[in-house]
Design brief:
Elements: H1 5-9, H2 14-21, E1 29-30, H3 34-39, E2 43-47, E3 50-55, H4 59-68, E4 71-74, E5 78-84, H5 88-95, E6 108-114, E7 120-129, E8 132-138, H6 142-151, E9 159-162, E10 167-173, H7 177-185, E11 197-202, E12 205-211, E13 219-225, H8 229-242, E14 246-247, H9 250-259, H10 281-284, H11 295-304, E15 309-316, E16 327-330, E17 333-344, E18 349-357, E19 366-369, E20 372-377
Parallel strand pairs: 1-3, 4-14
Antiparallel strand pairs: 2-3, 4-10, 5-8, 5-9, 6-7, 7-8, 10-13, 11-12, 12-13, 15-18, 15-20, 16-17, 17-18, 19-20
Length: 382
């Protein structure tokens, strides 16, 4: 067969793809769990300006744990912001793509921060809490996101605090995740809607629990003060191992999320795209709210009914994944490019995402790349 799955994974990943679309940050943000990972002999690697675990054991073992039991993930690639003040919901509603004012307390929603041309500056997770909005974005665009969110504050009563250096996160996901969450903090995960947020305590550690999936399985994410993260990681790691699970690195997560059809900001969409091209209009955009930055372009595209290129799911003819940026061709002409790829045990070959022109993005279309062919898949088909 050639390369082992773990070797194939080295050819792809979040970091390599992101550098092609977003500017690298000037300083690498190291995960606050770096010491714990090094002590466990995990291999660390830069992913879009964040130093995160690439692999803990090996791809096959980590993948099996995620699918059959439970996985523990270091998710410290986020910038974490808090918006307070009486106008916080009204203000964020006016400058982002989704319905923030209609967000119920204890619930979250995905939204986009757009420029006036409708290009995607940031993907936001927005959670409504009693006295604040908790907002998460990719750390690779942390400075730009804070600057953009701040610049429209004139007379609005809103305060934006960057909590990234004070807080951090980790997640558990897989068939055993709900049982572990219940044992850890008493919360019944299955009774919470997706993107719910609750205050919980794990041991004596105060956390915020998110009902959040990174690769399509039942999942939860814990946000806690940075100085408490090592202790929280240890507690969750012990629980995960007790259920036959493993910590997993970014390489395994990349394969899992591609199998689930989950796009990554920076890798699969960014400031070169508008929402319809990135196929985010149903998950990140409200078409019933009022005006917001970039709304005119978004509405114009919806009225027109089509875009000239679109993000697609791809199945490659080779087990070795093509690199991000690989050109896709039809009849000798360039018709698109790959944004991310990984070997998929479920598909038995490499899969990925990319952009194709309108004539080629229907499921079943086959295009060429140097080294093989790529077939456009129906969504959620892996």
């Amino acid at each position: 067969m050639g390369l082992r799955a773990s070797d194939k994974m080295k050819k792809s990943g979040r970091g390599a793809a992101q550098i092609t679309m977003e500017e690298k940050t000037t300083a690498i943000m190291e995960t606050p769990l770096a010491s714990e990972h090094r002590a466990a002999d995990a291999r660390l690697k830069e992913y879009a300006g964040c130093l995160l675990p690439e692999v803990f054991s090996n791809f096959e073992q980590e993948y099996r744990a995620a699918r059959e039991s439970v996985a523990l993930l270091d998710t410290n690639w986020h910038a974490i912001l808090a918006l307070t003040g009486r106008d916080r919901a009204k203000y964020l509603h006016a400058i982002t793509s989704n319905n923030i004012q209609g967000l119920e307390e204890g619930r979250g929603v995905l939204a986009l921060l757009l420029n006036p041309q409708g290009r995607i500056l940031a993907e936001l997770e927005v959670y409504a809490q009693p006295e604040k909005l908790l907002v998460r974005a990719d750390a690779s665009v942390r400075e730009r996101t804070v600057a953009t969110l701040t610049k429209y504050i004139i007379s609005s009563v809103v305060k934006i605090e960057d909590m990234t250096e004070k807080m951090g996160s980790m997640a558990i996901e897989g068939p055993a995740a709900a049982e572990i969450v219940h044992q850890a903090c008493g919360m019944e995960l299955q009774n919470l809607p997706e993107m719910a947020i609750r205050n919980v305590t794990v041991g004596n550690i105060s956390c915020q629990l998110l009902r959040r999936s990174h690769f399509g399985e039942t999942g939860a994410e814990f946000i806690a003060p940075r100085d408490r993260l090592p202790l929280l990681w240890g507690k969750l790691l012990a629980a995960v191992r007790a259920h036959g699970g493993e910590p997993i690195g970014m390489d395994t997560l990349n394969a899992l999320r591609l199998e689930a059809g989950v796009p990554w900001f920076g890798a699969d969409f960014g400031d070169a795209m508008i929402p319809h091209e990135a196929v985010l209009e149903n998950s990140h955009v409200s078409f019933t709210k009022g005006c917001y930055t970039g709304q005119e372009i978004v509405e114009r595209v919806r009225s027109r009914g089509h875009v000239n290129r679109k993000r697609v799911a791809l199945k490659f003819s080779t087990a070795e994944p093509p690199l991000p940026g690989t050109k896709l061709r039809a009849g000798g002409a360039d018709v698109g490019h790959v944004t991310s790829a990984a070997f998929s045990p479920a598909a038995g070959t490499a899969i990925g995402m990319g952009y194709l022109r309108r004539e080629h993005f229907m499921p079943g279309s086959v295009v060429d790349f140097d080294g093989g062919t790529a077939e456009v898949l129906p969504r959620d088909s892996v």
